[in-house]
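stage 2 :: seqdesign
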C-alpha cells in the first residue's frame, strides 16, 4: 500500500495487500503500476502469501469460492468439480476439500490423469472413460454439488450423477444458448446457479478473499506459477497460455 486517503488507517501504508474487483463497475483496474481502490477491496497479506500467488486470487479465486460455498457449507457432502486442471476449478476443488467435502474432479482425457498441475483430491476421473459409471461407483446416491466449467458440454453427465436437491454452479458455457436435459433435472429438483463475478455481493467477495488468503497461508490451497514475464513480453505470455503451459502465466507491470 503506497498511500491512503482521508479517514483510512495509515498503518496500511507500506503493507503488502491483495486487491480484488478493482475494475468491476469502476474506471481503473490492476493492469497498471498503481491503482486506487476503496478499502473494502483490499486485504492485507501475511508473509506466507507471495505477490504472485495473491495475483491469482481475484476473479478466479472468488468465483471458485462462490461456486463451492454459495449454497452453504460442504462438510460431509460430495462435490463434483469439472476441469480441475483449470484456474477456477482447480481452486474450487481445493476449497471444497478444505471445507470437508469428498471431492471428485474431472480431466478431459485419461492421459491427463498423471499430468502435472493436478490438485490432490479424493478422486479424479477422465471424461473419455465412462465418467457416469465411475462417479456413480464413488457416489452411489449421486453428488451434492457440481462446479461446472462448460455447462452445455457436460449437462447430460451432470443430470445423470446429481442427487435430489443438488446444485450445479456454473460460470461458463461454450455457446450463448444452452440446452439442458429438462426432465431429469426437474424431477431431481436441481438448482442451476449462474455465477457472474462482477455482481457477487460485495460482502461475499470480501469474505471469499479473506478465506482464500487464509487457505493459502494454511497450505490448503496451492497454486503453481509457471512464469512471470515483463510487460514487454505480453505477446509471449499469451502464446504460452494458448500453448497450455503448466502453471499460471503472470505479467509484471513494474520492474
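stage 2 :: out
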Amino acid at each position: 500500500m503506497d498511500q491512503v486517503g482521508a479517514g483510512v488507517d495509515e498503518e496500511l501504508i507500506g503493507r503488502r495487500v491483495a486487491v480484488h474487483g478493482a475494475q468491476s463497475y469502476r474506471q481503473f483496474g490492476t493492469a497498471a503500476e498503481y491503482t486506487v481502490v476503496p478499502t473494502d477491496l483490499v486485504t492485507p497479506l501475511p508473509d506466507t502469501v507471495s505477490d504472485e500467488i495473491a495475483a491469482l486470487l481475484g476473479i478466479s479465486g472468488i468465483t471458485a469460492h462462490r461456486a463451492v460455498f454459495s449454497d452453504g457449507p460442504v462438510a460431509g457432502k460430495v462435490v463434483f468439480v469439472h476441469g480441475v486442471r483449470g484456474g477456477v476449478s482447480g481452486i474450487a476443488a481445493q476449497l471444497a476439500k478444505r471445507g470437508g467435502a469428498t471431492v471428485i474432479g474431472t480431466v478431459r482425457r485419461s492421459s491427463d490423469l498423471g499430468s502435472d498441475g493436478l490438485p490432490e483430491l479424493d478422486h479424479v476421473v477422465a471424461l473419455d472413460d465412462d465418467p457416469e459409471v465411475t462417479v456413480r461407483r464413488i457416489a452411489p446416491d449421486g453428488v451434492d454439488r457440481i462446479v461446472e466449467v462448460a455447462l452445455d458440454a457436460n449437462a447430460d453427465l451432470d443430470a445423470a450423477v446429481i442427487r435430489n436437491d443438488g446444485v450445479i454452479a456454473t460460470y461458463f458455457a461454450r455457446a450463448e444458448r444452452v440446452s439442458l436435459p429438462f426432465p431429469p433435472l426437474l424431477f431431481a429438483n436441481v438448482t442451476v446457479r449462474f455465477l457472474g463475478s462482477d455482481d457477487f455481493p460485495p460482502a461475499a467477495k470480501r469474505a471469499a478473499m479473506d478465506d482464500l488468503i487464509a487457505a493459502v497461508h494454511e497450505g490448503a490451497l496451492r497454486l503453481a506459477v509457471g512464469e512471470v514475464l515483463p510487460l514487454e513480453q505480453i505477446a509471449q505470455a499469451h502464446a504460452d497460455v494458448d500453448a497450455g503451459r503448466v502453471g499460471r502465466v503472470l505479467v509484471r507491470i513494474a520492474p
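stage 3 :: structure notes
- The chain has eight helices and ten strands.
- The chain has two domains: 10-58+201-252, 73-194.
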